[in-house]
Amino acid sequence: MIVAIDGPSGAGKSTLGKMLAKKLNLLYLDTGAMYRAVALAVLERGVGFDETSKVVEIAENARIELIGEPDSLKIVLDGRDVSADIRTLEAAQAASIVSTISEVRRIMVEHQRTLGENDPSGCVLEGRDIGSVVFPNADVKFFLTAKPEARARRRFTEDTAKGRLSSYEQTLAEINERDERDVSREDSPLTISENAIVIDTSELDLSEVFEQMIAKISEAKSAAV
Ligand code: DC
Fold first, then answer.
1. Is the distance from the beta carbon of residue 86 to the nearest atom of ligand 1 less than 6 Å?
2. Which atom belonging to ligand 1 lies closest to the Cα atom of 92?
3. What percent of the chain has pLDDT over 70?
4. What is the rounded (10 degree) CA torsion for 94, 99, 104, 105?
5. How far is the CA of 113 from the centre of ligand 1 (A)?
6. Interatomic CA distance for residues 225 and 219, integer angstroms
């Protein structure tokens, strides 16, 4: 079973994706983390985002692994644990920029399909183009969204808990800038794909959204029998 979760940043995709993967015993793939790992490698090597062929070469040669259970997932880049390094604001913006390069997307999509298809029980993938490009035939497709203010509030609370310094206004501006780039890029922009179940999480708590998602997955499973 393949479950696709798309949506803008801060809509709850990661938290809910992990909860679903655990409950259903499926592999969990955080595809944004893969773009972040490429972006980190680009930043660390001092390569400019406009040096497309160098960025593509980095994406091609990067060995990106996602290791462990959903709750303690480690992102490993060329053998090094970069789980914390990829979560900075700089890495988030850089990931959004490198993800506009078609060749980088092609490499990431191929990697994501291989990982998703090779798991015997199935996979929960979260990102921006899962239902539209990576697995257009996914068994269930969700599009999670929320008002920018609600998403920024959540992100700000998470960042503060992790000891990261920023303000709510800064977080909101960062989210708006990234969303704008992610929806307006030419290749695989963030869109609500056909058949996706749209859930606005602004006014709902996590457990309510989780129950709705589980119910939809059960419906899809019974329909498939
Ligand atoms: O989900 P995230 O915030 O970790 O993603 C970081 C960036 O990566 C996001 O701004 C856009 C890009 N991305 C993408 O283009 N396609 C995906 N499937 C996942 C992420």
1. no
2. 6
3. 100
4. 160
5. 16
6. 10
Q: Which atom of ligand 1 is nearest to the CA of 179?
A: 10
Domain residue spans of the chain: 2-220
Question: CATH top-level class for 2-220?
Answer: alpha beta
222: CA distance to ligand 1 center in Å? Answer: 32
Model confidence, pTM: 0.96
Q: Starting at the edge strand that comes first in sequence, how are the strands of the sheet with 197-200 ordered?
A: 27-30, 123-127, 2-6, 140-145, 197-200
Please classify residue 207 by burial: count the beta carbons closer than 10 Å to its beta carbon, then call 0-12 exposed, 13-18 middle and 19+ buried: exposed
30 φ, ψ (degrees, to nearest 5): -95, 95
**pLDDT at residue 54 in the model:** 98
User: Does residue 225 have a pLDDT over 80?
Assistant: no
**How far is Cα 56 from Cα 39, in angstroms, rounded to an integer?**
11
Q: Is residue 95 in contact with ligand 1, taking CB distance under 6 Å?
A: yes
Nearest ligand 1 atom, CA 185: 15
User: Is residue 174 within 6 Å of ligand 1 at its C-beta?
Assistant: no
Q: Are 66 and 14 in contact (CB under 8 A)?
A: no
Per-residue pLDDT tens for 165-207? 789 999 999 999 999 999 999 999 999 998 999 999 999 999 9
Judge if the beta carbon of residue 96 lies within 6 A of ligand 1.
Answer: yes
